[in-house]
Amino acid sequence: MNFNSFNQERIVLVATVLVVLFAAIALPGFLNISNVISIVRSISVLGILALGMAIVIIGRGIDLSMVAIMAMSVAWYLQLLHAGTDETAAMLLVLAAVIFIGAVNGFLVAYADVPPIFVTLATGLFVFGFIRSQVIPSDAVTVPAGHWLETVGALRFAGIPVDVFVFLALAFATFIFLRFTKWGRYVYYAGDNPAAARNIGIPVRPMLVLRYVLSALLSFIAGMLTAASLLSIQTRVINSNLLYDVILVTVIGGIGLSGGKGGVRNVLIGAALIGILLNVMTIANISLLYQNLIKSTILLAAIILDGWLNPRDEQTAQQGDI
Q1: Which of 322, 314, 313, 303 is CA-nearest to residue 115?
Q2: Among 157, 202, 232, 299, which residue has the least CB neighbours within 10 Å?
Q3: What is the pLDDT of residues 198-239, one digit of tens each?
Q4: Which residue, among 254, 265, 289, has the nearest Cα to 8 in the 3D structure?
Q5: Are 236 and 290 in contact (CB under 8 A)?
Q6: How far is the first Cα of the chain from the last one, in angstroms, to the nearest whole number?
Q7: What is the pLDDT of residues 269-293, one digit of tens each?
Q8: Cβ contact 309:8 at 8 Å
């Protein structure tokens, strides 16, 4: 284990404990069962998105199209159902589109050498603009009455929403992929030193495409869970700060922006701290303006800390990549 990363994890863990202790003492209702369930539910969706972002960042990239894919793919899926499309056909069609967008992101980054920050920003805006203008008539699309998403949204095990178990299952699957599979180890090799990885025969470019496809699929799952809990999907979520929260979770958890470092444990730690912090600020009735100021300050501090602990190499600087 990297000593610096270990220190960062411990700092975040201590900060999480301090925030919980402060909230438990100062904020009546923080430890209510309903509020705790609300926290773990919000952490689950945020965490699933952060898992996808982590896979991309460990491989030395970034995906700014995640929230657009999350909202617009599910909105299109629900719209197809309202239009009378068969359930299986609608699901397969949307899944194919999600995989296609992820593959386009990966292809442009891997084979056209376009910086990922520009590619994913452009595809995210295109997905939102195309689906909103050509496919769905309103900003929000509801879940059809009697659909299985209603059952999923109400499903509980020991009083815990099913979202939490889905997040934990995906976190475990991601952990197995990154640590115990050949393809997962390739992600670290490519993120640590792409040129060296290519020289020893690792298929760096196909692996890069795979990472963006996985990120897109995890975004779709997060969107389905959001629709299940709210019984609708709001496409204007792409104008919110959700994407920055996902980056914040990933960076503050200890995943280095220079690639090749971090794992699922960092996502879990970061999601816990940010999920609890967002809940505390909401209960404390802190205005959205000051919430954004606090989060931006934390994100800036986390990026500076990451730059200090995980300095960028010369190759990354020359590419203008992150």
Answers
A1: 322
A2: 157
A3: 888 888 899 999 999 999 999 999 999 999 999 999 999 988
A4: 254
A5: no
A6: 23
A7: 888 888 888 888 888 888 888 888 8
A8: yes
* Percentage of the chain lying above the pLDDT 70 cut: 93
The distance of Cα 143 from the centroid of its chain, to the nearest Å, equals 23
∠184-124-39 over CA atoms, to 5°? Answer: 70
Q: Determine the pLDDT at residue 258.
A: 80
Helices 242-253 and 66-82 pack at an angle, to 10 degrees, of 130
How far is CA 71 from each of CA 14, 108, 113, 132, 250, rounded to the nearest angstrom? 34, 22, 27, 10, 20
In the chain, what are the helix, strand and coil shares in percent, each to the nearest 5? 75, 5, 20
For the record, the structure tokens of 217 come out as 């699929």
Ordered DSSP codes for 167-198: HHHHHHHHHHHHHHSHHHHHHHHHHH-HHHHH
Contacts 24+ apart (CB under 8 A), 95-99: 95/217, 95/220, 97/73, 98/69, 98/73, 98/216, 98/217, 98/219, 98/220, 99/213, 99/216, 99/217
What is the DSSP pairing of strand 160-161 with strand 140-142? unpaired
Cα angle at 79 between 78 and 85, to 5 degrees? 90
Give the integer Cα–Cα distance in Å for 199 and 289: 49
- List, in order, residues 6 or more apart from 74 with CB less than 8 Å away: 94, 141, 220, 223, 224, 226, 227, 233
Task: Note whether 63 and 215 are within 8 A (CB).
Answer: yes
Whether the pTM exceeds 0.70: the reply is yes
291-313 pLDDT, tens digit per residue, is: 888 888 887 887 787 777 766 55
